[in-house]
Amino acid sequence: MSSITIAVDAMSGDRGPKVAVAAALDAVRENEALSIILVGNQAELEALLQEGHPRITISEAVDVIRMNERPSHALRHKQNSSMAVALRLVRDGEAQGCVSAGNTGALMAFGRSIIRMYPGIERPAITKLIPSLRGKCHVLDLGANVDASAENLYQFALMGSLMASAVSGLTEPRVALLNVGEEEIKGNEQVRLASHMLAQSDTVNYIGYVEGSDLFRDVADVVVCDGFVGNIALKTGEGVAGLLIELLEQAFSRGVYGRLVGWLARPMLGRLLRLMDPARHNGASFLGLQGVVIKSHGNANERAMLAAIRQAAREVTMEVPRRINDRLDELMI
Amino acid sequence: MSSITIAVDAMSGDRGPKVAVAAALDAVRENEALSIILVGNQAELEALLQEGHPRITISEAVDVIRMNERPSHALRHKQNSSMAVALRLVRDGEAQGCVSAGNTGALMAFGRSIIRMYPGIERPAITKLIPSLRGKCHVLDLGANVDASAENLYQFALMGSLMASAVSGLTEPRVALLNVGEEEIKGNEQVRLASHMLAQSDTVNYIGYVEGSDLFRDVADVVVCDGFVGNIALKTGEGVAGLLIELLEQAFSRGVYGRLVGWLARPMLGRLLRLMDPARHNGASFLGLQGVVIKSHGNANERAMLAAIRQAAREVTMEVPRRINDRLDELMI
Q1: Residues of A whose CB is below 8 A from B217
Q2: Would A1-121+288-318 and A123-280 be classified into the same CATH topology?
Q3: What residue in B sits closest to A188 (Cα-Cα)?
Q4: CB contact under 8 A, A247 and B67
Q5: Which residues of chain B make contact with A271, given a CB cutoff of 8 A?
Q6: Of A120, B77, B236, B304, which one has the greatest count of Cβ atoms within 10 A?
Q7: H or E stretch including B295?
Q8: A 154-173 residues with CB below 8 A of B?
Q9: Across the interface, do A146 and B183 touch by the CB < 8 Å criterion?
Q10: Mind telling me how many Å the CA of B274 is from chain A's nearest CA?
Q11: Taking CB atoms and an 8 Å limit, are B240 and A183 in contact across chains?
Q12: Does A225 contact chain B (CB < 8 Å)?
């Protein structure tokens, strides 16, 4: 197994560098092929690292991008931020991928300005594997863009299909558009036009429209929507899961009988709780850039940050950007 | 208690008139103030009603609107459909409200053409009370419109606020816009402009942006979005709930031990299962029309259809349209 280096923006998350440093230590300990470059305030990171680790190094960055900072402002004034420095490490080949828990808009703006896009792709999209009853589903865009033209949706479908092939080994991933109904007449103009374009495509195995409830029913391998819709669908789903977990915990903590049955039920609920655990699913891919860029939840804890680093390592190992780029190159000829 | 009459479009649902007739019989039996007019094929309805009920009558309609029929086509060719006839019963005062499990687009088109809109409101919206851990939240639009201008969103917020006052008795309902983040800079143009308009409003208690996960956290009483986003959020939430219920059932049906613990746990899971039961939550309100129009899920079963009829009766009893209309009239002066 060849060695991998991931740059971790240690400063931009809500919980500060402590979480990033702890997750980096966990990650290098569990994966002997992995090295990590922590990007941020040198003194602070050194103090947190204590005796350190031979496969963890520090790359200094003096600035931090705030969560509510305008991406355009960050782009002008924060070229020395931990986020920008981490992305440049990927561009310069010192790392093969990077992870940031910072401002999504700024990560997209810096990502596009620092790392080259795939040929023929206008905008990156954020994508994630959503667990379902059987199998998993790549959903994009989850919030890189607040709107999308039919051409953008078409390109997301193409990238999503290539991603599903590269990550899940599917030869003809089933690609669908998220819509308010399955009938042909439904939906807004962009979605209807994108559907028309996809139906003509030789490259994408387009299966038509799916609805929000289909995301968890293994009817498609890739589901495409604009970033506004995708972000709200994802967070609504997480909200329902959170509500249910809370109700389940309440039910099994009321009285002696409740706690006893809860204890008896614990082993059976393992799969359900794992499937619903947000920390396990942390880490969304910035798809469209010729490099692995993983966005972590802003308020990720150590376990969640570790999941995001693992995902970056996995995409690097599977050479996701190279494989997508090669296929897009062929298609553009 | 004064008597109420609800017109039920018995023909337009996926499961045919059998479900509507059975639900109508249940509804009049449990509510002595309620009369129902079943609208549809007389012979078929009479056969299903058997000996009948003194508070159930039949109003003949020869046509049925298909689920995938274009609303514009239905409007031209299906004036004698069960849906249109049911709406005219409301317009003519023979019923105070109606319920249909048919084509949403057609219901909106006929609703607008048959029943007057509130003063100053351009488009109706579909709204529903979403259960959360504490309290409930009115969400709109859930799919009446596939897009919405800032003015539309503003009007939805106004109607939603008046609805929450009328239905839940809140004096200053907390009204929020659904967005991809809580920061002021987030979101698409329509949402940002609507936020600006709402912030200036004396009538609406606007609290700013909320995210998808906030729908279940009792942070707002009314959440406003366009119909594309709302429909997908609602169905995604239902999808997650369905997935979880299925996993829970799987966990408690595996082996003797699993089934035993499941049986022991059943009483504790009651609240959770009730909260997640789609049939109990069936029935969405068409808000914007001067009359009670309730949209049922297309594939509603008897229990779900009964829930929709109950909701129509509740809104009629609470005089929701008159109360909203009076307030809007005042505001327009």
Answers
A1: 239
A2: yes
A3: B146
A4: no
A5: 247, 251
A6: B236
A7: strand B292-295
A8: none
A9: no
A10: 11
A11: no
A12: yes
Q: Which of A240, A257, A277 to probe the B interface (max B CBs under 10 A)?
A: A240
ipTM score over 0.90, yes or no: no
Look at residues A119, A222, A230 and name the one whose alpha carbon lies nearest to residue A162. Answer: A222
Q: Could you please state the CATH topology (level 3) that the domain comprising A1-121+288-318 is classified under.
A: Isopropylmalate Dehydrogenase (3.40.718)
The tokens for B241 are: 């709930």
Helix spans in B81-136 (H): 82-91, 104-114
Judge: A237–B240 Cβ closer than 8 Å, yes or no. yes
Contacts of A133 in chain B (CB under 8 A): 243, 246-247
Given this structure, which CATH class describes domain B124-280? alpha beta
| Interface membership of A145 toward B (CB under 8 Å) | no
Residue boundaries of the structural domains of chain A: 1-121+288-318, 123-280
Question: Chain A contacts of B266, Cβ < 8 Å?
Answer: none
Q: pLDDT tens string for chain A (333 positions)?
A: 579 999 999 999 999 999 999 999 999 999 999 999 999 999 999 999 988 899 999 999 999 999 889 999 999 999 999 999 999 999 999 999 999 999 998 999 999 999 989 988 999 999 999 887 777 899 999 988 888 999 999 999 999 999 999 988 889 999 999 998 766 667 788 999 999 999 999 899 999 999 998 988 889 999 999 999 999 999 999 888 888 888 888 888 888 888 888 888 888 777 777 777 778 889 999 999 999 999 999 989 999 999 999 999 999 999 999 999 988 888 876
Query: Do you know the residue count of chain B?
Result: 333
Cα separation of A210 and A181, whole Å?
A: 7
Q: What does the H/E/C string look like for chain A?
A: CCCEEEEEECCCCCCCHHHHHHHHHHHHHHCCCEEEEEEECHHHHHHHHCCCCCCEEEEECCECCCCCCCHHHHHHHCCCEHHHHHHHHHHCCCCCEEEECCCHHHHHHHHHHHCCECCCCCCCEEEEEEECCCCEEEEECCCCCCCCCHHHHHHHHHHHHHHHHHHHCCCCCEEEEECCCCCCCCCCHHHHHHHHHHHCCCCCEEEEEECHHHHHCCCCCEEECCHHHHHHHHHHHHHHHHHHHHHHHHHCCCHHHHHHHHHHHHHHHHHHHHHHCHHHHCCEEEECECCEEEECCCCCCHHHHHHHHHHHHHHHHCCHHHHHHHHHHHHHC
CB contact under 8 A, B268 and A247: no
CATH no. for A123-280:
3.40.718.10
Query: Which of chain B's residues have a Cβ under 8 Å away from the Cβ of A239?
Result: 212-217, 237
User: Cβ of B180 and A232 within 8 Å?
Assistant: yes
- Across the interface, of A216, A227, A228, the residue whose CB is closest to B240 is A216
Q: How far is B258 from chain A (nearest CA, A)?
A: 7
